[in-house]
Automatic annotation (TrEMBL):
Keyword vocabulary terms for this entry: Signal
Record's protein name: PQQ-dependent sugar dehydrogenase
Organism: [Kitasatospora] papulosa
Lineage: Bacteria, Bacillati, Actinomycetota, Actinomycetes, Kitasatosporales
Signal peptide bounds: 1-23
SUPFAM superfamilies cross-referenced by the UniProt entry: Soluble quinoprotein glucose dehydrogenase
Span of domain Glucose/Sorbosone dehydrogenase: 73-375
A Pfam family reported for this protein in Swiss-Prot or TrEMBL: GSDH
Region feature (Disordered): 25-58
Length: 391
């Protein structure tokens, strides 16, 4: 069930921790401060030239915190919605997955994911629910082990006692390079029902430009971890490259893929992803207009963002900021190179570091804070999941 990114079957590369730490500036933010179509023939997601079909959003938006759904979470990172609306949230450092009732906020421990080795920015990271969950009850997880980052699927059986509801991991992809920083970790199923994964270059910057390595990439694969026919290069999982540390993935109403990414010292980025394109790292950071590289649609100073998860709702991309401690709204214009209006910040400093944002249907979003991960200042009740109403 597992497959390497390389056509010749070789995936390696571990970087030394000391080099990684010296290379990292923003990372998570400084320590200070239906039936699926045949997966082998599924087409790539819509090209970036396609325009969203929905009406354009207003230039200025608004955010209302409707309620705190739940609190007392430990190092939450990945979040995914089950059919029916309840949430699954993973603890990066405890390697557990918990179900959150979407109405009451009640918690049910599913269990632990074996093999997770939390350290630095690694641990239990992204979660995704299979589009075929109603039939197979599969939950996907991206996590760090002692030797690599990998993606596995686990069967969820809610009829078993709490704490014993997760089956053994079935690894579909191993060998993604790991480091103390820049492990990427976001996974999501796209409109094409294929699984996408954002990876980091572990601080070894050259890996981002090496198309033979899965590090510093966006990967696209079948639910079994196999390359998808229609990917840019034959039997490779690599969908786009030249990334420093992809942290958020989302699709707009036109089925265009967006990704948020940590910069180093100057610019954090929101990119519109096109298959096979080079997003510049380490040769380019931010908008430089350099030949052969794709510029971001929007960029921020690293002190204002250090972006993590993103979601699409009400015609805008919503981006959680770690070091920036704010939620960014980027209204989309339908053009590939510019937003409708300047990005707008909300909730600045009110809830601390913001890790993950997830569409909850219509004008609602789930927002997950990140103050118990060792880099934030935890307050009573941290960490929490908030329900937002947006426009």
């Amino acid at each position: 069930m597992q497959t390497p990114v390389l056509r010749n079957g070789v995936v390696a590369l571990l970087a030394s921790a000391s080099l990684l730490l010296s290379a990292c500036s923003s990372g998570d933010g400084p320590a200070a401060g239906e039936e699926a179509p045949s997966p082998r023939s599924s087409p790539a997601s819509a090209p970036a030239s396609a325009s969203p079909s929905a009406d354009l959003p207003p230039a200025e938006g608004a955010v209302e915190v409707v309620k705190t759904l739940t609190d007392g979470l430990a190092s939450p990172w990945g979040i995914a919605a089950l059919p029916g609306g309840d949430l699954l949230v993973g603890s990066r450092d405890e390697a557990t997955i918990t179900r959150i009732d979407a109405e009451s906020g009640g918690k049910t421990l599913l269990g632990s994911v074996p093999g997770v080795a939390p350290a630095g920015e690694g641990g239990l990271l992204g979660l995704a629910v299979a589009p075929t969950f109603g039939a197979d009850h599969l939950v996907y997880a991206y996590f760090t082990t002692e030797s690599d980052n990998r993606i596995a699927r686990l069967q969820y059986d809610e009829k078993k006692p709490p704490g014993q509801q997760l089956g053994a991991p079935d690894t579909i992809l191993r060998g993604i390079p790991k480091g103390s920083i820049h492990n990427g970790g976001r996974i999501a199923f796209g409109p094409d029902r294929m699984l996408y994964a954002g990876t980091g270059e572990t601080g070894d910057t050259g890996l981002a430009q090496d198309k033979a390595s899965p590090a510093g990439k966006i990967l696209r694969m079948t639910p079994d971890g196999e390359p998808v026919h229609g990917n840019p290069e034959g039997d490779s999982l690599v969908y786009s490259y030249g990334h420093r540390n992809v942290q958020g993935l989302a699709w707009d109403s036109g089925k265009r893929l967006w990704a948020s990414e940590f910069g180093q010292n100057t610019w954090d980025e929101l990119n519109l992803i096109e298959p096979g394109k080079n997003y510049g790292w380490p040769d380019v950071e931010g908008k430089e207009g350099a030949s052969g590289f794709v510029d971001p649609v929007a960029q921020w100073k690293t002190s204002e963002a250090s972006p993590s998860g993103i979601a699409y709702a009400e015609g805008s991309i919503w981006m959680a900021g770690l070091r920036g401690e704010r939620l960014w709204r980027i209204p989309l214009s339908g053009k590939a190179d510019e937003p409708l209006a300047r990005p707008q910040a909300f909730l600045e400093g009110k809830y601390g570091r913001l890790r993950t944002v997830l569409a909850a249907g219509g004008d609602k979003l789930w927002l997950v804070t990140s103050n118990t991960d060792g880099r934030g200042t935890a307050k009573p009740g941290d960490d929490r999941i908030l329900l937002l109403k947006v426009r």
